[in-house]
From TrEMBL:
Keywords: Amino-acid transport, ATP-binding, Cell membrane, Membrane, Nucleotide-binding, Transport. Residues 6-245 form the ABC transporter domain. The keyword Membrane applies. The keyword Nucleotide-binding applies. One of its GO terms (biological process) is L-amino acid transport. Belongs to the ABC transporter superfamily. This is ABC transporter ATP-binding protein. GO terms for molecular function: ATP binding; ATP hydrolysis activity; branched-chain amino acid transmembrane transporter activity. It holds the Pfam family ABC_tran.
Length: 246
């Protein structure tokens, strides 16, 4: 039996009081699962992740219907900081590294509220074990590292919070296919070894379905199809409209 860790029940999201963007999105994330949230430009993937991590306010958005539960407990009104304390962390689209800080300083911003130095050092070593590239670049300013390294740094920073669930927004954006493979491979490794669950918003359907266990396809703010990654890969509509092989 699989344990559901995250439950999104029929959420509606409205921006600026008028623009209805999510029209009743439901999804679940099981313990230790990698789920992909797929769909084209503007389908509502980022909005769904932001709703879960309560980051819509800054965008003048709000959840107007539905509920979000973490292990059967409502979390819709918790602050992003409280969600991080409970193990839910988001890696934003566009990476958002601090350009003027070194890779290591960026990683350490992931635990600025903590003072347990030994634990922080252990976290850092763990991140470096998964991302050896970051270890070699630890003293480089983020601005002078590659897009792939910055994406790794953003994921590494999230890992510094010891998360149970990582919401990963468009990790493939702007990266060469080989680097995307490398990033997804590390995500899968983290999932296997550290039991971190991932919800990954992606436009790169082929790559996401290669690494995910389960997928949800969003169109205009609605989940139009969901299923095991393998079944979605073989689905004729998915092949035609999302994989370009129909
Ligand atoms: P992309 O891959 O392009 O980021 P997405 O699937 O993540 O697409 P969202 O970013 O969630 O989609 O956007 C969904 C819809 O909401 C789009 O029509 C977008 O224009 C709109 N939208 C997003 N943010 C805002 C905002 N702050 N105010 C108004 N509308 C917004």
């Amino acid at each position: 039996m699989t344990n559901t860790v995250l439950n999104v029940n029929g959420i509606e999201v409205i921006y600026n009081h008028v623009i209805l963007v999510l029209k009743g999105v439901s999804l679940t994330l099981a313990e230790g699962q990698v789920a992909a949230l797929l769909g084209g430009n503007g389908a509502g993937k980022t909005t769904t992740l932001r709703a879960i991590s309560n980051l819509l306010k800054g965008e003048r958005g709000e959840v107007t219907k539905g509920s979000i539960e973490l292990r059967n407990e409502r979390i819709d009104s918790l602050s992003p900081a409280e969600l991080v304390r409970r193990g839910v962390v988001q890696v934003m689209e566009g990476r958002h590294c601090f350009a003027h800080l070194t890779i290591e300083e960026n990683l350490l911003t992931g635990c600025y509220t903590r003072s347990d130095k030994a634990e922080i050092a252990r976290n850092l070593e763990k991140v470096y074990a998964y991302f050896p590239r970051l270890k070699t670049r630890r003293t480089s300013q983020a601005a002078y590292t590659s897009g792939g390294e910055q994406q790794m740094c953003a994921i590494g920073r999230a890992l510094m919070t010891n998360p149970g669930i990582v919401l990963l927004d468009e990790p493939s954006m702007g990266l060469a296919p080989q680097i995307v493979e490398e990033v997804f491979g590390i995500v899968r490794d983290l999932n296997h070894k550290e039991k971190v669950s991932f919800l990954i918003a992606e436009q790169n359907t082929g790559m996401a379905l290669k690494y995910a266990d389960y997928g949800y396809i969003l169109e205009s703010g609605r989940v139009v199809l969901d299923g095991k990654a393998q079944d979605l890969r073989n689905n004729e509509d998915v092949k035609e409209f999302y994989l370009g092989v129909g």
